[in-house]
Design the sequence.
């Protein structure tokens, strides 16, 4: 509920405070007195667009501040708590300031706030109804949302929005993957070729060095054989071979050691060396037999080395065999990712098909719920229109599908568009006079009829909703007499469960007020200012008389005004049952 509204330096308002309470508050005054500025200020506070032109001439800044009681609004309380704004008791102070330099600031609970947060809070606290909202009612794009307020399909609509979001994301991913399918296929071919080529080569670590050594031996086989024979003869088989002479020397040294024990260790080392040299000699003797020159083997070595060099240039960038094997592992891992380790086009196609089926299934449930709610809403709105002196009118809700070839979403044998709220295209129809066919509101409703349709919808849609603040401006456009009194009664009925603030020019509506505020202008210091006056019973009668008679208030106008006021007061206070939270 809106407790207080404080405005400074906005348009022709210098400094103004409006205290408010539950029930029905009526704002009246001469044309141009500034009544609608109060509504505009509230719209500005809750995130409406505004520039320096709204600032009172000669001032540097304008501000709008309001105190809201959120005790009965769980959504608003939860939103403020979630975003960390301080709430004192059950109230929150919202403020917006417009600066002449073109900048501005906003705050909630004394903490700076983005305009988006003010808009979000405003959507939970207040409904503003004026000429703009009537234009909204004429736009069928908004009719589905209005019906959904009545249908009680919150859970179904949340699931519909979630599935629709998943479907859109999956479809976008599928398009992207299909567009890249050829590139991916080419990449897969390349990776498979690399893995297969390296596997065919059966590369082993250190293989190149071993092959080079073997090639070197084969190229120098004769030299190696000649050197081996010469070494063998020098050590063992030739005249004066080293091992024979060494044996003689060791025998002599052993005789010496009998007389000099200190020589025993040296003799032992010499004997060990002789054994090593003897083993070397036997190896040299057999070496030529192991070294066989095979031209075919040499050719195979050359081919193998050439293959390894080619693979090294392609995959190892001048490194060794380990580089080739590392490239093979990387290619295999990427293959796994692109084929077996991630989502494929086929996977996504199946997922999109499943999501389409799920979206249609949920949308069908939403549509059934909407159609049932529409039948009840039609009856209730027609009853309200009857009470609003549109007794011969008929109200209906039309359902259509929007064709969308290629969507893949089939309903009643047709491919249709499905969005986050389903597939229904909803439009409100009205027949304002007997014998006329039902037609869109924009083509059949006059200003006054549209105001009453809007009010009837608000009465029905808000009947069981959480308490809010409802603000009506221009709701009396194009009506008068008994119709105006009927509108006043419906506003009063609405005010039993909600705080209602209404700007009106009609005494029949004003007579229903729980709180009547007169808005007027007066000159102060050569400037015009807006002033407010909360009227007592006598003041209400005089204001009603002015509204009835104009400039000259007659005794007859006063008697008529008193009768109007008495009829309104006899119905009891609108907000007496409970205090509306906003």
Sequence:
């Amino acid at each position: 509920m809106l407790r207080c509204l404080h405005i400074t330096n906005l348009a022709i308002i210098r400094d103004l405070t409006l205290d408010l309470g539950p029930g029905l508050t009526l704002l009246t005054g001469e044309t141009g007195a500034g009544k609608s500025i109060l509504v505009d200020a509230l719209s500005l506070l809750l995130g409406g667009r505004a520039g320096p032109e709204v600032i009172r001439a000669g001032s540097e800044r304008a501000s709008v501040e309001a105190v809201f009681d959120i005790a009965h609004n769980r959504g608003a309380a939860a939103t403020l708590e979630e975003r960390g704004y301080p709430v004192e008791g059950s109230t929150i102070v919202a403020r917006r300031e417009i600066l002449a330099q073109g900048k501005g600031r906003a705050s909630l609970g004394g903490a700076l706030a983005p305009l988006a947060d003010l808009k979000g809070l405003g959507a939970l606290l207040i409904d503003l109804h004026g000429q703009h909202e009537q234009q909204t009612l004429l736009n069928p794009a908004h009719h589905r949302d209005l019906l959904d307020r009545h249908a009680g399909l919150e859970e179904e609509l949340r699931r519909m929005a979630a599935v629709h979001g998943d479907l859109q994301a999956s479809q976008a991913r599928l398009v992207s993957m299909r567009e890249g399918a050829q590139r991916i296929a080419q990449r897969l071919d390349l990776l498979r070729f690399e893995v297969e080529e390296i596997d065919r080569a059966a590369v082993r670590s250190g293989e190149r060095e071993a092959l080079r050594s073997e090639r070197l031996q084969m190229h120098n086989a004769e030299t190696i054989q000649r050197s081996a024979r010469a070494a063998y003869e020098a050590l063992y088989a030739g005249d004066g071979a080293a091992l024979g002479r060494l044996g003689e020397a060791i025998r002599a040294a052993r005789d010496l050691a009998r007389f000099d024990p200190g020589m025993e260790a040296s003799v032992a080392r010499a004997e060990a060396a002789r054994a090593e040299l003897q083993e070397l000699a036997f190896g040299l003797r057999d070496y030529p037999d192991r070294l066989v020159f095979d031209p075919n083997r040499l050719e195979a070595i050359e081919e193998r080395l050439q293959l390894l060099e080619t693979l090294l240039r392609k995959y190892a960038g001048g490194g060794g065999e380990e580089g080739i094997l590392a490239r093979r592992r990387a290619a295999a891992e990427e293959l796994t990712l692109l084929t077996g380790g991630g989502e494929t086009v086929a996977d996504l196609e199946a997922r999109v098909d499943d999501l389409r089926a799920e979206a249609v299934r949920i949308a069908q449930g939403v549509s059934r719920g909407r159609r049932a709610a529409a039948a009840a809403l039609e009856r209730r709105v027609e009853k309200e229109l009857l009470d609003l002196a549109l007794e011969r009118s008929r109200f209906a809700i039309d359902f259509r599908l929007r064709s969308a070839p290629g969507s893949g979403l089939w309903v009643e044998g047709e491919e249709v568009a499905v969005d986050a709220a389903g597939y229904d295209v909803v439009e409100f129809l009205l027949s304002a006079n007997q014998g006329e066919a039902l037609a869109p509101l924009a083509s059949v409703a006059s200003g006054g009829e549209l105001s009453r349709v809007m009010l009837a919808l608000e009465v029905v849609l808000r009947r069981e909703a959480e308490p809010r603040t409802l603000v009506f401006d221009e709701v009396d456009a194009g009506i008068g007499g008994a119709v105006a009194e009927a509108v006043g009664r419906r506003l009063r009925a609405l005010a039993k469960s909600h705080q209602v603030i209404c700007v009106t020019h009609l005494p029949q509506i004003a007579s229903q007020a729980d709180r009547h505020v007169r808005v007027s202008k007066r000159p102060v210091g050569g400037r015009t200012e807006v002033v407010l006056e909360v009227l007592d019973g006598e003041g209400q009668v005089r204001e009603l008389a002015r509204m009835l008679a104009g400039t000259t208030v007659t005794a007859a106008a006063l008697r008529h005004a008193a009768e109007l006021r008495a009829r309104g007061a006899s119905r009891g206070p609108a907000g007496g049952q409970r205090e509306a939270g906003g």
